[in-house]
Amino acid sequence: MYVFTTAAELRAYSEAARGAGRRLALVPTMGALHDGHLQLVQAGAAAGYEVIASIFVNPTQFNNPDDLRLYPRLPEQDTALLAGAGCTALFMPAVAEMYPQPTALHFDFGPLERVMEGAHRPGHFNGVATVVSKLFHLARPHVAYFGQKDFQQVAVVRQLIDDLSFDLELLVYPTVREADGLAMSSRNRRLSPEARAVAPLLYRVLTQAAEQVRQGVAPAEVQAQALTALAAEPQFTAEYFEVADAQTLQPLAGYEAGRGVVLCVAAHLGGVRLIDNVVV
């Protein structure tokens, strides 16, 4: 497995690979890898792509300095995991390599980013779009793999690809979960044993809410009951629970035949912010 730390190295590799007719897949990550990340790498390798994985804790998408400071960083362990998963090239740049000067460009995704993560983390999706755009330009992948756990991020990246005419296919894979239902996340490493024991409540609340949606319970009632269930566990502090249109991500007042519904939740548990979602 190649390991690149500069934009020039990655650009030279991708240009040579494309020139030789090889197919490239990109798996962007912030490291502290888990099986959800590795599933994406393995899928790309199994499909015959040369997989480029990036590890970069992107400072421009953090609106909380403590969250950035405490984000797990395990470069040696991650490198070994990627090599074992079939990764062809790892791009692991320093901040100064990705941002040699402050970025003046600002992305605005309209209503898509005025809700949920965008509403609670101002500037987050501008940072995501900036770094993803840079990675797309440097790696020039034919396909990019993302996980469904960051549902709103996927919607923003899809809009980015459409609006800027990136010549690549976006492939989204289902959330990988622990045996007890907790969505795999790099932030789970920061949970204390006590917090980890109650963390699966998040997914239980989502699955109960999904069943209510299938039964036709009004969105406002589904939301209210979900927030009540989370409030019953004192270790949890809910940030939001939304019953939204699966395409526009706008909150629903009612259901419409043929329109998908996504249930999205964010909550704090023992000082760690967790997100999850279920598509109905």
CATH topology of the largest domain: Rossmann fold
Please summarize the sheet with the most strands: 6 strands, parallel
**Class by SSE composition:** alpha/beta
Low-confidence stretches: none
Radius of gyration equals 19 Å
> Helicity, in percent?
40-55%
**What sequence of helices (H) and strands (E) makes up the elements?**
EHEHEHHEHHHEHEHHHEEE
CATH superfamily of the largest domain: HUPs
Q: What's the overall average pLDDT, rounded? A: 97
How would you explain this protein's 3D organization?
- The chain is of the alpha/beta class and 280 residues long.
- It has two domains: 2-173, 3-Layer(aba) Sandwich (Rossmann fold), CATH 3.40.50; 189-279, Pantoate--beta-alanine Ligase, Chain: A,domain 2.
- Helices cover 40% and strands 20% of the residues.
- It contains eleven helices and nine strands.
- The chain has helices at 7-19, 35-46, 65-70, 75-85, 95-98, 116-120, 124-139, 151-163, 193-198, 201-214, 219-231; strands at 2-4, 24-29, 50-55, 89-91, 143-147, 169-173, 236-245, 261-269, 272-279.
- The protein has a six-stranded parallel β-sheet with strand order 1-4-3-2-5-6, sandwiched between helices.
- The N and C termini lie far apart (39 Å).
- 37% of the residues are buried.
- The model has no long low-confidence stretch (mean pLDDT 97).
